[in-house]
Structures are given as C-alpha cells and as structure tokens.
Fold:
Amino acid sequence: MELYRAHVLVCAGAGCISSGCQAVKSALVESIDRLGLQREIKVVETGCMGPCDLGPVIVVYPEGVFYRQLKPADAMEIAEEHLLKGRVVERLLYKAPEDGKTAVTSDQIDFFKKQTRIALRNTGIINPESVEEYIARDGYRALGKVLTSMTPEEVIECIKKSGLRGRGGAGFPTGLKWEFSAKAPGKPRYVVCNADEGDPGAFMDRSILEGDPHSVLEAMAICGYAIGANQGYVYVRAEYPLAVQRLSLAIEKAREYGLLGESIFGTGFSFDVEIRVGAGAFVCGEETALLASIEGRRGEPRPRPPFPAQEGLWGKPTVINNVETWANIPPIILKGPEWFASIGTEKSKGTKVFALAGKVNNTGLVEVPMGTTLREIIFDIGGGIPGGKQFKAAQTGGPSGGCIPARYLDVPVDYESLTRLGAIMGSGGLIIMDEDTCMVDLARFFLEFVQDESCGKCSPCRIGTKRMLEIVERITRGEGRDGDIELLEELGHGIKSSALCGLGQTAPNPVLSTIRHFRDEYEAHIYHKKCPAGVCRALMVYAVDEEKCTGCGRCALVCPAGAVYGEKKKPHRIDLEKCLRCGTCMEKCKFGAIYTI
Amino acid sequence: MKSLAELDKLREKLQDEMRLREGREDVKVVVTMGTCGIASGAREVLTAILEEVSKRGLKGVTVTQTGCAGLCHCEPLVEVERPGRDKVIYGHVDEKKAREIVVSHLVNGQIIKEWIIK
Structure:
C-alpha cells in the first residue's frame, strides 16, 4: 500500500448503493483526477457505515469529516474546497434534527457516539475487498495466535469464558457448542456459517459480510482448529449478491496469502471455506434445514436431537454459528475473554447489532452493549419517531419474535428480559412502530409471511398457521367473532408446543405477543368493529362533515361505487352499504369535509 | 504466508497507511493551501513532503492541508505540530526546503531556525 495524505471513505453498503453512492464515487474520483490529486488522495469503498437514511455518506480522513446525502454534483466542491484547500464544506455536514447543530466528524453525532463496535469494528472503516486493510487492523492475528500458542482446548475454554452466546436468535452459549462438537465422535467435522438472514427488515449479517468478510473467515478457521475441522461452508442467500461477491473475493485473497488452505502459517493446520448459495427459503435459516440444503437435499428441518454439534453435515459433528457470532470471535481471542465478559449484562455478554427500521428517524445499523435500553436505542441513537408521532411498539426477532410496547421502553435489552416480555432477541431486526400502526394488521403481516414460508413438513405449522391467518384476516375485515382471541391463543400455544422446527415453534409469537400487550385493539376490532389506528380499511367508516361540505359534487364524481349522493350545492352523504372504503372521496375533497370514524 | 512472523511484518508495513483513519497522530505537518499558497507552489511542496515521508517510512506522521493562514506574503507555509510542543511555522518553502524540513525536523528533530516565521 502506498502512503496517501488523505483517505476518502465512500460507504458502499447496499443502502448507500441504492441511494447512488457509485455515481458519487466516480464523480469524486474524476474531480480528484482533474485537480491532479490522485497520488495524494485515496478513494476507498467500505461496507455499511450504519446511518443508511443519510446516504450516500463519505468520511474524509485524517480529519474524519463526515459528509451526508451527497450528489455527484457535490463532488467537485468537496475535492476543490476540502481535499485541495483544506476547507470543510459546511453545507454538506450533518445537522442534528433537534437543534440544527452541525457535526463535523462522525464522533460528534449521537448516532455514532453511543455505539460500541465489536462485530462491526471494521465495517465502514476498511475496504472489504482488500485483505491488506483487514490485516493492517489486526486481521488474522487471532488465527495466528491460536495456531501458534494455544491448544484447541484452550481456544474453547477462552470462548466459553467470554460468555459469548449465539447471535442468530436463540442465544446458545457458543463455547459450549464448540465443545460438544470437539468431543463428539466422528470425522471429518465441519464448520458452517449461517448467513441465511431472512427476517423482514433485518440486514445485520449482510452488512458484516459486505463490510468485513475476512472476520468471518478468520473466525471459522479458528473454530476449525478448536474442533478439529478442515472444511467450512458459508450458506448465504442468493438475494445477497454483493455479499456473495465480496465473500468470494475474500476467500480468493485469503487463499492467495496462505491464510486459508494447506498448512496455515506453516503449522500443519489446513482449513478452507466454500460458499453455498441458498435459494432464499426462509426455513433454510433453521439449522437442520440449512444443513440439508448444503447437502443438496430439500431444505426441510428434521427433529432435534441429535443436534448438529453431534450429527450435522453428512451426519458428522458440525458447528453452525451465525455471521455476527463469528465476527465476535477474533477480538475475543486477541483481547481476552475477560475483556469481552466485562461488556454487557450478567447473562448476556458483549454487544448486539440491530438493524433499525420502520418509523424511526435514523434507520440503519447500530451496535450497542447488551443491556442498553430500548429508549436509548430508539431515541438517543435512532433519533426518535418522525413527525413528532408517538412511539407505540418495537418488534424484535421478526416473524419469530414479538412486540414490546411503550411501557417497557426502559427494559434493558438482553436475552432474558426480552424473553420475559414475550419477545425474543432474535437476530437483531428491530422494527419501530408509531401510533399509526395497527397491531392486528401487524400480526396478520407476520402470519402471512410464515404461512407463506412454512415448508409444509409438519401439520401444526402448515395447517395451524393457515387457520390462525384466516381468523386474523377475518378480524381485520370486521367479521371477528366472540371467542376468536381465545381460539387464537389456544391454536398458538398448540403450534408452539408441537411444531417440528424453530420456524413453526415461533410462528405464533407475533399474534400471541400482540394479544398479550394490545388485547384492547383486538377487542375493538371484534366487538366494536373499529380499527383504532385507522389501518384496517374494511372497518373504516367514511362520513361527511356537513358544515364543511360545499356540495361541489367532486366526491360523487370520483366514487367508483356510486356511494356518494346529494344535491348540488348541498351537503352530500355517503351510503355505507355501497361504500368500498377506498378513500378516494376523502383524497379528492378540497375542503377536508370527509373524515373517517 | 509461511509463518506468523511474516504476517506481523506485513501488518506493520500496512499499518502506516491505515493509521490515518485512527485519528491518533503523533506529528502533524500542515501545508496552507489557500489560493495564495497554491499560486506560490504549495502543491509541489505538499507532494514533496508526502514523497519524502513515504520514502523514509516515517511512522505517525500526518500530512494535511489547511486554508489561507493570512500570511500570504510568506506562502507557501508549512506548519509542524508535535504533541505538547509549540507549533513551528516555516515560510517561503519550496520543494527543496520541504524535503529538508522532513529530514532535519521530522527525522532528526532539528528545527531549521532560519526559515521560521517569527
């Protein structure tokens, strides 16, 4: 690598790519060339920096100046003013929405200030396509340390002592899982990375694979040494083409440097990794279905035990961990288990990455110590709810998880406390909902999702979720009956206790947890035929404010059902028998005379 | 990669480049590059300093630029800042002087008194 006086880091996470970072980057490179600065300034593409709603973003080092929402037209100004003359371009800096204060560097922004980055330590800082930049930031040093100065037992002991638990959702102690595999009879053994991230709104694993692929490879090799495996597989979904591409390149580069392959560091230990691309079935995120898919069989789960740690790929002992879990391994080896265990809460150590989505100002990727409260994540880091609306609930764990209502905002986020609330930590999807969200409709959305993704192998999941969906749909249509809530609960508990795999066992959670925390909303739908949030169309009643209505007749003209009637210049009325609840009349009324009840 | 030592050696070499993004700096060399500075040759000065720093493999040196310092008649200006010491400002720097500043001030710690602006 050559010495440059400044580095311009362009975020090339999928979020910024979709907001046009490639065009900004080319414009920057072109401007830098035009000013003849190409030998002094290096432009680097990095993985996701986190603040996706501010994209495209760049950071200019050594000063660390953070520019946001750039357009290609801004490139010349940055090049000429900042890169050539050293003057920060004020206009393109971040301004806090609350007080309009400008932040020059990213560490002055609340969104970054409150984060602790372990799994995301390199994401957004290094060029994910350069193994050199990874090495410069202590990359593969942990693997070197393990291979040259630790026994496999010591490695497992170290991970156990750190208290690291699986970040894929269930939170099983990682070190214990490794130990089970190491002690299980049978050879060869395998190491698998679960990158089949399928929860709606979750993108933690994708961002790590796109932003720091080597950290996963290094960790898998460490595990290989610890359990006596020489082959690893990364199972990643085909919907993540950029992750697949960067990971493939990383594997290639690591092999070139001899960091994967035969006799790594001349120690005689060999390890290699291959990618398996999944077709995107949600159930393949379930470990036994995932393993079946790697073997080339149909992606269907099987009963456990035996657990994969004992009988996994091709019936051999297999450690399968989630992407984020892997990304935590190298720092634990380098900094020691005590350091890791000092972060977080008593039973949940370290940090957790969340993908903030939904009705929140700063959507994006955040990493916080376990035990951080939801309030801190949503309001301090996430910047609160847009439009001054009220926070209603947060959905964790996607379709397997549950919702957490506003009264629990101060609960520390860790595995145990979320489970107690009927939600789960899950892989880290965090969907924020405001007052305009109907919780029954939300439950319907997730049920529809799991119903669609159910593999159909076991009947509780295949038929049970279908029946639940039918009931919830009926409720949202205003045809709910007395006893529906109780029936949903009964069905839900039945499915939870009898379904074959994690997908089915958790599928009723969104319904059960919304019933638990928002039973009144279900009751309003069923008994009063009302949707308090005003989302369920069939329950809306359109009415005319006779004082405001001028009788212009525009509403009657646009109504597709001919439900609006009345004389010219006199207040109109809506025939609710004919009304389709399409809302066109309300949309077209110039006087705001039509409202919903 | 045949051994861990090889990795360590490689990392040390690569770290110089990445130090820039750490925000940790030992010595900061600032070239003022307002219109006046650029017109009187600050670009060449900056390039020369970069070249020299890189050639000598100096560690912990950040080379950066800033706007016009107001001393337009003394341009190009080069400021050298070491933590805990007063800032030293050299005036009328050209390419040759720039290289000498790197050698004598940065490498040997000798301030070149006669070029300093008082």
Summary: The two ends of chain B are 53 Å apart (CA to CA). The interface with chain A takes residues 1-4, 6-8, 10-11, 13-18, 20-21, 23, 25, 30, 32-35, 38, 43, 46-47, 50, 53-54, 62-67 of chain B (CB under 8 Å).
